[in-house]
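Quick check before the chapter quiz. The format below is the same one you will see on the exam, so make sure you can read both the input and the output lines.
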Amino acid sequence: MSLPQKQFYLSQEQSRRKFIYNLSKTAGVTALLASPLAGRASDFFHVKVDITVGQIMDLFISKVPGGPINPTVDTLKAGNRDIKVTGIVTTMFATIEVIKKAIALGANFIIAHEPTFYNHQDETAWLANDDVYRYKADLLKQHNIAVWRNHDHIHRLNPDGVRMGLLKQLNWQSYYNASASEILMLPDTSLGALIQHVKQKLSINKVRYIGDPNQNCKKILLMPGAAGGTRQIQAMGKYKPDVLICGEIQEWETAEYVRDAQTKGDKLSLIVLGHIASEEPGSEFMASWLKENLPGTKITHIPANNSLSFL
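Here is the expected output.
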């Protein structure tokens, strides 16, 4: 066997061993470890390994400090733990469009970050006679698709998987400080240049902001998603940033605080990215994590994109 061939088979063996090692730490995989696969490195990519929705959920949760979290919204919204996975789609929202794309890809497991059925707890009793809900639920059932919301657990990773996905997209990983994870000290830049940077890196057409585009910005308070006005305001009071970059706001809370702070004379600005734009990179992080830990499984990230348009 030539040296390149030896290196190729060594690489496949390492991937196979990592795959089995990761699975061995979840429940119900004894039969897999006892199978002939465990001794056939050269056949690794020719043998279909059955892995279930539950095993993948358990594998990720096993990496979360203090996991599993209880109570949590991270439950199955469709399907069951025993479904054998044919492919995985990660996304911010399991929209009907995303579900149809997953079907076209032959994927039957969707890992979403946010609710599937229009409320935080994914309660559906109030939607029982709603045509949109019924269409979506029936589509998932007809194609035997499992949907798992991974919200609390990915945020509880150390470091937070959504934050790290966003930092990577913005090319700001080098500014991350674990001891003050919400604060970034950037090279001096103007508010206007900062806005253009986040728009370009996150593919955002427009953002809402408060401030002078010429203001110098260095100390950034980064709070993706929907932290809520109380947390945002308390963090601004604690850290005294030049600018808060956040996912979404209650207009009558955070925006009014920033407006009053500026009138008072504080150098404080606000950039509102939108919830989806600020947290979609977390679903890309999830796809990368799955690819690293489940070699041989087809994994695709499908952006949910913003449901709203701007004129």
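If your answer matched, good. Strands lie at 76-78, 88-91, 109-112, 146-149, 183-190, 208-210, 216-223, 243-246, 269-272, 299-301.
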